[in-house]
Input
Amino acid sequence: MKKILVIEDDLDIARLLRIHLEDLGHEVDHAATGDTGLDMALNGSYSLVVLDIMLPGIDGFDVCKRIRSQNQHLPILVLSARDDEVDKIVGLELGADAYMTKPFSVREFAARVKALFRRIDVDREGGVAGAQEEYSFRDLSLDVASRRATLSGEALELTGREFDLLLMFMQHPGRAFSRQELLESVWGYDYSGYSHTVNSHINRLRNKIEKDPSDPHYIQTVWGIGYRFADKPNGAAT
Output
């Protein structure tokens, strides 16, 4: 059983989500405003936050941003009546793990929650059995089992998506990935078309791991294609 926080001002929707999450065997808390939800998310012990965007008080985007600034790993599933592509991109770039548009089917919602928890369980178990557990390149190291990244021995604060992106690159040094390939591999097929999300995550990763993000030596741009991880000790940005 996992503990889930639902931040939703529509009480009918909140009640419906509670019923189906409890049917899945989870414990559910509810907040009806952004301010209350943010306080609960930061001070409670939750395995998932289900977050509406249009909330009284601070809106869901701001809640997402503030949660992510203090907790890099808490999964956030955004629900929104706004179907604008810009809103979806903003939500994902602020650190949401998934974005669903209202109205949605209960079956789809349950499937998305299960998928998020499956990813968490895989992370906790250290990935696929038999897979390499550690990756190192120059001063950068990843420990897959503990989901820890270090640079010159110092711990890096990476979000779940940033870690997954870096892991994908370090597993395939020298291979060029298109933005679409990275979206499908790291975010899942349903994020097709949001290439700006990849760009923003790459920029944030570079700010954390590169001495000079404008002249990257780890994550290189391959013009006309996408990105690749350096495969030579003295590799420079393409």
Q: What stands out?
A: The chain has two domains: 3-125, 134-229. The CA atoms of residues 16 and 106 lie 9 Å apart.
